[in-house]
Design a protein that fits this description.
Helix content is 42%, strand content 17%. It has 362 residues and is an alpha/beta fold. The longest helix is centred in the N-terminal third of the chain and has 37 residues, at 2-38.
């Protein structure tokens, strides 16, 4: 009798589980139907559109018949447009993707909204580099993590021969590198800000001062700077992502440069995505946010040399540019929510007085 009751219990549990799955599928199908009626979504992202971005937009449109309008822009440009539109009651942007500090700052300011349950985010057995729902599960806003990448040190082989280093971030304070470094300007959620924040936390003020004393110039052209290293205009760039190095990776071998995986750890960058407050096409946005987590969309990223991805079950086209998935992380990586929404900006500001003292900023 007890066994019969137990079997009935298991049957009942299976029936409930099956029913829940069916209900969830029905609910998601309703979201997709509503998204198709909206027919369009506006995707704002940091930087210029690349091949992977355009491929994802095209594949999504083919899958769902929903047009994706691309709205690239740095942080300030995006916020200026979006704030002006919202003030006029004519918001046009649905989702914003960028480095996770920008996304987490949007979440901390209450400028995003819940995207609900995304089937791809809860797909069983996916080997995520970072749980896409890490912030949501912790109750820290509504940022969806959609990609992962890493920063490296890019070095010209002629100016800084391999035998002489640098081998890690700590080495960059050595006076022998004076006048050889171009630094991504530590301003806003930039690559230079990430370096300044984490380097300060790990090594302190004196380290920041010594490295900045070695800097010859600041740049906001993170795509152009690697080419300057390849041409020998500078010896060291702090610091490109694997995406930033992808263009020069196509140059004939042997390369006149090398991509140093720092022995004190890789500074990781997670890309986030937010469904924005007042989004005019919220259902289309939700369907797209689900799509970017699928293996198909993630493989499009991995097909792009140096492309960032968050699933380990995809195959990067250039493995040398994908060390971020397996390398030792720099101290305090991966980012916490507190770092991304607050400490990132406070710690990176520690570089400001040294930049001014070195004559790099007024």
């Amino acid at each position: 009798m007890k066994r019969r009751d137990a079997l009935l219990g298991l049957t009942s549990l299976a029936a409930v589980t099956t029913s829940a799955r069916a209900q969830n599928k029905e609910t998601w199908d309703q979201v997709v139907t509503a998204a198709k009626k909206e027919g369009v979504l506006v995707w704002s992202f940091f930087g210029a559109p690349g091949a992977a971005t355009e491929r994802q937009a095209k594949e999504f449109e083919q899958l769902y018949g929903i047009k994706v309008e691309l709205a690239p822009g740095r942080t300030g440009d995006f916020e200026a447009r979006w704030n002006a539109e919202r003030a006029a009651g004519k918001a046009s942007i649905d989702i914003r993707s960028s480095g996770s500090p920008e996304n987490r700052r949007l979440a901390a300011r209450g400028l995003d909204q819940s995207f609900g349950t995304l089937p791809a985010a809860v797909e069983p057995g996916v080997p995520w580099i970072l749980d896409p729902l890490v912030d949501v599960k912790a109750g820290n806003g509504h940022t969806l993590m959609t990609s992962a990448g890493g920063y490296y040190i890019l070095v010209n082989n002629r100016i800084c021969p391999p035998a002489g280093g640098p081998r890690g971030y700590k080495d960059l304070e050595d006076p022998k590198y004076k006048g050889l470094i171009v630094l991504s300007e530590p301003i806003g959620p930039s690559p230079g800000s990430r370096w300044a924040a984490y380097a300060w936390k790990a090594y302190g003020d004196d380290h920041l001062r010594k490295v900045i004393d070695n800097v010859k110039a600041l740049t906001r052209a993170e795509i152009e700077a690697p080419k300057q290293i390849a041409r020998g205009e500078y010896g060291i760039f702090i610091h490109p992502t694997q995406v930033g190095a992808a263009d020069i990776w196509k140059l004939p071998k042997p390369h006149p440069f090398r991509l140093v995986v720092p022995d004190d750890g890789v500074m990781l960058l997670f890309g986030g995505m937010n469904l924005l407050k007042d989004a005019p096409h919220p259902n289309a946005a939700r369907v797209f946010m689900n799509y970017v987590l699928t293996k198909s969309a993630q493989q499009i990223n991995a097909d792009d040399p140096g492309g960032p991805f968050i699933r380990r079950d995809v195959t990067p086209k250039v493995p040398e540019l994908a060390h971020f998935a397996t390398a030792k992380p720099f101290p305090n990586n991966p980012d916490t929510y507190e770092f991304g929404s607050k400490l990132f900006f406070e710690w990176s500001a520690k570089a400001e007085p040294y930049l001014k003292a070195a004559g790099l900023k007024k």
